[in-house]
Amino acid sequence: MSESKENIFLFVPNIIGYGRIILAVIAFYYMPTNCLLAVVCYVTSALLDAIDGHAARIFNQSTKFGAMLDQLTDRAGTAGLLMTLATFYPEYTFWFQLSMIIDITCHWLFLHTSTLQGKTSHKFIDMSENPIMHLYYTNKTVLFWMCAGNEAFYAALYVSYFYTGFTILGLGIFQWITILSAPVAFVKTLISVLHGIVASMNLATIDVNERAAVKQN
Description:
Helix content is 76%, strand content 2%. The chain is mainly alpha-helical and 217 residues long. It has a two-stranded antiparallel ribbon. A hairpin with a 2-residue loop joins strand 1 (167-168) and strand 2 (171-172). The longest helix has 44 residues, at 173-216.
């Protein structure tokens, strides 16, 4: 008797991922008008990003579909927030557009290329061999604060449009969070660009190998 087929779509981490999408959509809807509700939904969706990873390990339910769902939800969530920020701060629209494009294209290219290449060839560039990138990839504390700082920058910029909060040296607390987290967001963007460059070079390596294999046949 054959074993029953697993339903990947009903794996626990993927169900959590669907919940993240629902929360993000609610956040998008209320972003222009209800700051508190939008922030609660957006932040909860972001926090669940860590929980679904733990669930995948606990239940041994790590899947390519889950990884793609997770990445797309992250990218879409940030893109939705950036679109709102562009309407609040139109003078900075170009920079929001640039940030969105870099975030989406570089992460997608890196994830897609990683799926294609696997870990079968020493010819591929491994960014973890670089000391700085090795720290970024292997130190969960560093990775957490980089991601948290990036989210804090855009979220604080959003909240600042509605609330000042208590002031320190003449600036509201959310303005201070924006200022202090801005360098982290900038570095995170540079790392995304690096991801895109390395992914492009690895994808070219895949093309060269495939073309060589065709010629040999």
